[in-house]
Amino acid sequence: MFSFDNSYARLPDTFFSRMDVSGPNSPTLIKFNETLALELGLNVGNSTDQDLAALFSGSVKPEGADPLAMAYAGHQFGNFVPQLGDGRAVLLGEVIDRSDQRRDIQLKGAGETFYSRGGDGRAALGPVLREYCVSEAMYALGIPSTRALAAVLTGEPVYREQTLPGAVVTRVASSHIRVGTFQFFAARQDADALRQLSDYVIQRHYPEVADTPQPYLNLLKAIIDRQAYLVARWMQVGFIHGVMNTDNMSVAGETIDFGPCAFMDQYDPTTVYSAIDSGGRYAYQNQPGIAQWNLARLAEALLPILADDIDEAVALANPVVVGFAPAYQAYWLDGFRQKLGLMTERDDDRSLIEQGLQAMFDDQADFTLSFRALSAGSSAFAAFTSERPALTEWAALYQARLALEPEIDLVRREKMESVNPVYIPRNHRIEQAIQAALGGDLSLFHKLVDVLAHPYEAQTEYADYQAPPRTDERVLQTFCGT
Ligand code: AMP
Ligand code: MG
Question: Of the ligands numbered here, which is closest to the C-alpha atom of 120?
Fold first, then answer.
């Protein structure tokens, strides 16, 4: 089915630990992502659901696979752990997709690995469904993300606080190399491995820096730029990653690891959902600062290969890390200008956007619905703000700003609707889908995946899915699912 070409497996054996997959005896297929399979050029042929379940649970090792668990380290909530690694994930191998991009195929939840550190290497159904829904939703929103190729029930229990059904999600990523992968070798003072890893990442993700005078410094710059863009995109849809540890930050610039992540309903920059994030380290408003902090850790890891002299290396890396802030600010402004339908640039646009967000906060308005109402034109927005005094006041400023735009209403609306989603994976909907699935009913999960595949198109039959939670539907906490 796969035409594997496993380049990571050809790196030195300090980079990973090879392993056998041993899946469950009678797995059943929950979902197979046929569109993604086509994109990957997989030859599904006449595989039955049973065949697919066997393949995407690790019961059958596909031909050409060279399964391995990747080594990495990471800062978890600010504390450095020199060895983490794939404790519940196994990389089957890489395929070259139809657009000539190399993609990793990884099973998550298929059992213990060398890096399991006492964990069972398994995943419960809930987190698997969450990752499937949210990663695919991110993709459909146009935000760089890992993807979900399949979800399978193992038919075996996993033991958490409760006994839960076990499941496996097949994750597809541009690669699974993380900031923590660099930290792994830096912690071992292995400069050769750092060079090998950097060369590999350059070749795979940033070939444009290969022939520059300072390839490793330019690699750092390029990674920082992609992260600045990524986090700005998160902020523009109200996404809260929840566990932005350095081992959960991909150097390819994709959203990765959907543990306790959630989308904010009502706009409040201090929002935190993750139950383990009691200090609010990874709150919505802290995400850009944390991203920069993580990237400073990446810069530190790279120091030994940036220059022979440490002071010189620091002098080179510092301005690059500092450069995250202006890059992020520019992406933030650009994205919010688009959300407001501003195609020209004026000096006080930032302050107009900030005032709009403040008004949303004051009125306790829903982030997604507010922007979508704004996209529907001035009378629709007036209806939306009728009982929202701060937004009503702000609308006058906004109208005055629109008067300076050359574009006519209709063109603007169309553009705005293509960047302001109707549907986001609202937390209460995910929770409902998970609860139903735990009771054996997967229909809500399937429906949610379908709705979220077209987030910018109003779908009359799914009007309910736009709505924020009723008070009794609110989900205030999310869990890692480990
Ligand atoms: P995460 O918080 O999901 O990013 O995971 C942090 C680390 O814990 C990674 O090294 C994971 O591989 C590992 N881990 C998470 N869940 C499990 C599990 N059920 N069994 C073994 N290792 C796990
Ligand atoms: Mg992780």
Answer: 1
